[in-house]
Structures are given as C-alpha cells and as structure tokens.
Amino acid sequence: MYKLVDKRNLGPNLTLYEVQAPRIASSRKPGQFVIVRAFDHSERIPLTIADVNKDTGTVTIIVQTVGKSTAEMETLEVGGGFCDVAGPLGQPSHLDNFGTVVVIGGGLGTAVVYPQAVALKELGNKVISIIGARSSDLVIMKDQLGAVSDKVMVTTNDGSEGIKGFVTDALQQLIDNPDMNIGAVYCVGPVVMMKAVADLTAKYDIHTVVSLNPVMVDGTGMCGGCRVTVGGETKFACVDGPEFDGHKVDFDELADRLTTYQSHERHKDQCRMLKAADKIKE
Amino acid sequence: MSDITAKQRMAIQRQPMPQRDGLERCKDFDEVNTGYDLETAIKEAQRCLQCKNAKCIAGCPVGIDIPGFISKLADGDVAAAAEILRSSNDLPAVTGRVCPQETQCECVCVRCKTDTPVAIGYLERFVADYARENNLEKPKEVSASTGKKVACIGAGPAGITCAGELASMGHDVTLFEAFHKAGGVLIYGIPEFRLPNKVVEHEIKNVLALGVKIEKNVIVGKTVTIDQLFVEGFDAIFVANGAGLPTFMNVPGENLKGVYSANEYLTRSNLMEAHRRDAETPVLRGDKVCVVGGGNTAMDAVRTAKRMGAATSTLVYRRGREQMPARVEEAHHAEEEGICFEFLTAPIEVLGSDDGWVEGLKCVRMELGAPDDSGRRRPVPIEGSDFVIDCDMVIVAIGINANPILTQATPDMNLNKWGYIQANDDLATSIPGVFAGGDIVRGAATVILAMGDGKKAAKSIDNYLKTL
C-alpha cells in the first residue's frame, strides 16, 4: 500500500493527494506521470505528478472528480492509502532557457503545468503564467504559480476574476505587447483549450508544448490505447509523450478518442455497444 | 511401474481431453478443457513405453523428466509425479495448458510412428491440478543461503522461472513487476477460458514460497535503472520484461473509436477483469467484431469477443489456414465456438461513421506468391478484389515490437536492429552481471521458450555469482 500522508480540497471537485512512494519521488522529473489504483478493484488512472518531496519520499497528485473511479478515490483518508502507484512514466519535459516563457494552465491543467513553471524559472526564464477557469471559485494554485512567476494572469469565462474570456485572450495581449518576446509556450488543459492556444501561437510561430491526456491502460507502451497522431505519425503518449509539439498534434482526433468510454462512465447500461450486445441476447 | 506388457500398452488408445460444448462454453469465461479424472489419467499414462532414450525430454525446452513423472502417475503416485514435474518446471499447471506440445515433446514421441503420441500435455496438467487440489504438493528444496542478491525484472514466465530456480539454489531473489499483479502474459494476455487466473496465482504463490520477494509497480528504466539496482546491492540481474509495443496495420481509420490492439483488448478483459459486467475498467463490447492476425493472440482475442456477446466474431488473416501460427487446437476450438474465418484476406482501411466509430473493415483478397525471407509464401493482393466486412469493432493482433523503456535507460546494453536485447548462448548481455531472456530477446515467442530461458539464465547467473 502507498500511504496517504495528506489530502486537501483545492476547489470544487479538485483534491490534492500526497502519497508515500519513495522510489518515484527520487526518480521523477517534471512532466512525468503516475498510474494509480485507489483500490484493488479500481481502474488504472494516469495522473501527472504535480510535485515530489525527495526528503519525505512523497508524490503529490491532483485529481478532478469526473466519474466513478475518481469519486471512489475521494473516500480515501489520511492514514489509509492507494493500492497501487506506478511510475514515473513518460518522457520528462524538454526544458530550456527560452528567455520569456508563457505557462498556461486550464482547470486541473494548472496543477499539471506548475512543476514546469518551477523548473523553467530555475533555468533563468522570465515566467508569465496564465490560469484559465470557468469562474473564480475554480481558479487554483494562483499563489504557488505566483511564487515562481514574474507575472500571473487569470481569465474566467464568466468574468468573476481577471480577464473575462479565455486564456487565448490573455495570451493575445502578451503577443501584442511589443516589449514581450515570447520564446515558448507551455500549455496544459482541456483539449479544446490546448488546440486554441496552439492555433494562436502557430500564427506567430511560437514554439508550443502541450501535455496530452488520452485514454491509457498500462502506461508503459504495451496497449497502444493512448495513440495520438503527431505530425502525421502515430505516437504513444505514454512512452513518446505525454508532451508534444502543439503545432503537430491532431487535437480533433484526440478529442474524439477521449469520448470512447464517456457513455460507459455516465450511463454504463446505455453504452452504445453494450446496448447492441444486449439486443442480440434478447 | 504397473505390471502390464508392452503389447497391452500399445493397445490403449489416446484418451481424449474432456471439453465443454463449443456453443455452450462460448457464452462464459470458464475453461474449455475440463481435464482428465484420475482413472483416465492413469490409463493414458500407461500408454507411455518408457523409452530408454526418451526423445520427449530433449523436445521439452525445460527438460522435464517426462517418462519419470508419467511412470509415477501410471503407478497412481500423483504426489511423486508432481515432485518430478516441479523439479524442472515451476509452472506445470500453466504449461500443461498452453504449451504447443504438438511441436515439442509429443511430436517426437515414439508412438507417433504407429498411432498417436502420449498426451504428455494433458498428463502434465492433470498431475499439477490434482496435486494442487488434493494438497499433494511438496515444497521444492532450498539450498543454504549464498548471501548473493539477484533481481529478476518482469514477473512473467521467464522471470518467475528464473527467480524460482535461483531461490532454490540459495540466492536472495527479488522480482520487479511493472503491473500491479504478477504473471505477465499469463495474467494480462491469455484469457481465463484457456488459463484461469487462479491457476496462475497458485503457481506464483509456490515460487514466492521459496523465499522470492516481489516488488510490484516498478518499471525498470523509469522507477529505477539497472545501474541503481547494482547500487542497491544486487549482484546480478535477469531482464525478462517482455516485448510489448503493439504493431498497428498502418492503414487509414486505425485510430477510430472501436479499434483496439489485441494487447489493450486482452489486458482490459483479463488483467482488469472487464469481462465482468461489474468491473470498473470499461471495455467495448462489439456486436460484429473483426480480429486481424493469425497467431495465438489473435485467436484469444476473437474468442474473447465472442464471449463478450458478439453476434459475429471473425478472424481476418492474410495467409491461408495452413500458414496460421496459432496452435491447431486453438483454431479447432475457435471453429467449434462459431468463430468465422476470412483467410487470404488483408485489411486496407477501417471505415468509420460520421461520429468516429468503426463501421466496417475494407479488405482485399490475397493469393500466395513466392516465399519470403521466412520461407513462407508471401501473400499478394488480388487486384480489384476489394470488399467490406460489416463490423463495429476491429482488434489488431499482428505482432509486437520491442518495448524501449528499459533499453533507452540502459545505453550500454547492445541491442539488435529491431531493438531487442542481444544475449549470447549463456543469455549474458553486453553488461557484466546482466542477463536477459524471453520475448525481450526473442521477439514474440511462447511461454515455454521464455521459461526455458529463465532456467538457462538461472544456471548462467549461478555460475557468474561463483566468480564474484
């Protein structure tokens, strides 16, 4: 068992878990993920490592409650623990000194992009962070990002905090600023947001890195379920990614593949294929 | 050995394996073959002529004393038979089920000359099952501790076998497994109806009882490197992490929803138990399923799809029936279960609906041309023979590539041009103290060949440890 040492609520449906996993804490690099199973019957869920503490041997993950498995994870309490935590998986981020870097996080992606911001700052970059959320109560990690950023911008869809609109509106402002010479953009968030950011930066030829979250089972290249099309080639997000050049990713295909089990998760009995199978039996 | 004459032995016919009715069994995941009872097993054992120069032993990749265990069984001493089996095979209930005996021990049986070979596989299975069910298993002897530590990477057939052998030699062995459960392909790949997980779990428990430790969720190359394992105090390492990167067909439409690799489909169904309706892990249940490939994995996938409720489950293979690499028994079982076959057929496109789901598999008919590098006649498309198989799910089972995770993190290790680890006859790699076997050396092979490698590597590692 992987002991749960801290659990905190970060906002509606967002929970932080700090778990004992010394081997992972010592070998993990920014950009990598773990696969967890809360209980022995649980699904394997890939989650980006938000932070590690090498001294205490702990790994921090942030989970959005979206379905049955993540809801069940919510029942874990400090002192108890996860049945399985495997990792670190995936390629580490390719980080460099780009001069000025814009780090963009949307929703849960804000937690995922935080370690990149830390590492980019350590490399001597000027870091500008943009946090996107539907409304003010969903804005997370503002203080943590603020501590490693030269500037933090917030956008909310409803205008309850910061700029009313999307992260691309804030990014456009930065691009339009003649004093701002953006060397690279790191963006993690919902597929539609990453696509919008990549489309925008492509116009200005700004190097853009995105972190993808396709459906995954083993996370070690064995199943191929996480395949994505990048630059016309099939890549496995678990071993070749999860980070890719945002200008080359086929986001539409990714978004579509992500809907594969949606009906299973929400209405298990009404799943298209389950229904078909049941019809045959009747 | 029981007192019957050679003539009497020769008069006994090969005892058929009792099996469940094809159309009945394809509705559930219970085992197809139900196994001999004691009486039948003894009768079959009496067919063995106890050759002095037993060719079957040489035909077995782990060198089981086949006439030896069969002789004890013929005497009705199942415990003694089980002990002989276990002395050279840590997973007899597994190999008794999944080994291709027809190309190994049984095909060299002297009785092939006159009638049919002794059913060595069925007998092996019987002895292992009977011993397990009746508490007749004697633990293997473990030599005094040598104080040497060995890491076996991958708890599949090669790693488990190597770990068991080394532990009985007195070495301190730790198995490192990437998944949350030990067993490798025996657990994630081979379906329940061919190899029940509880059988595998029991065999692994026996190996762990020899003092083998296991650390799960460790992906060597990511969680820890080979170098770090030496720093942790391991004196030698056996790499048996399997092959594992699925090959896709590289045809349009392959990323549509409803296209799986066989690895993903079988892992969801077996390891994650998605074949159970109450499982947390989802799996698509196709109504009309096409499986592409002709090996045992393809056969497992197409039969699993049928059991998951497919009205039609079709195997699409680019060569003919005779060229299929799958075991004859599996193909025969598949036929009994109502699996459809499209031989000499190759997919050229997966067709999809507007909302991105599989709607059909566009194929072309093939004919066999001149032999290729492997000596098999190369299939050539017949122009203008395109047609569409109506389906809502496609499973691709056309082979695997070398998994790069461990080898990328181990730059000093010599690989062949396909990325598999190069090992010499003793299974030593280019790194001193590191040995390798199973699929990561061979490419996709069989359970028993991986086990043979595990056994061979254990001997090499034992010799190596004596030089330290």
End-to-end distance of chain A: 43 Å
The total count of strands of chain B amounts to 16
- Helix fraction of chain B by DSSP (H/I, runs of at least 4): 25-40%
The CATH class of the largest domain in chain A, by name, is: Alpha Beta
Written account of the structure:
- The complex is a heterodimer of chains A (282) and B (468).
- Chain A is of the alpha/beta class.
- Chain A folds into three domains: 2-89, Beta Barrel (Elongation Factor Tu (Ef-tu), domain 3), CATH 2.40.30.10; 91-210, Nucleotide-binding domain of ferredoxin-NADP reductase (FNR) module (Rossmann fold), CATH 3.40.50.80; 212-282, no CATH class.
- Chain A is 29% helix and 33% strand.
- Chain A has a seven-stranded antiparallel sheet with strand order 6-1-2-5-4-3-7.
- In chain A, strand 3 (33-37) and strand 4 (45-53) form a beta hairpin.
- Chain A is globular, with a radius of gyration of 19 Å.
- Chain A starts with a strand and ends with a helix.
- In chain A, 50% of the residues are buried.
- Residues 265-282 of chain A have low confidence and may be disordered.
- Chain B folds into three domains: 6-133, Alpha-helical ferredoxin (Fumarate Reductase Iron-sulfur Protein, Chain B, domain 2, Orthogonal Bundle); 149-244 and 402-465, FAD/NAD(P)-binding domain (3-Layer(bba) Sandwich), CATH 3.50.50; 246-399, FAD/NAD(P)-binding domain (3-Layer(bba) Sandwich), CATH 3.50.50.60.
- Helix content of chain B is 34%, strand content 16%.
- In chain B, helix 5 (66-74) runs antiparallel to helix 6 (78-88), helix 9 packs parallel to helix 18 and helix 13 crosses helix 14.
- With 468 residues, chain B is of the alpha/beta class.
- Chain B has helices spanning 6-11, 22-25, 38-45, 55-59, 66-74, 78-88, 92-98, 120-133, 157-168, 185-188, 197-208, 226-231, 262-271, 296-307, 328-336, 405-408, 439-442, 447-466; strands spanning 149-153, 172-176, 213-215, 236-239, 244-246, 259-261, 288-292, 312-316, 340-342, 345-352, 358-371, 377-381, 387-390, 393-396, 400-402, 434-436.
- Chain B contains 18 helices and 16 strands.
- Chain B starts with 5 loop residues before the first helix and ends with a helix.
- Chains A and B meet through helix 1, strand 7, helix 8 and helix 10 of A and strand 5 and helix 13 of B.
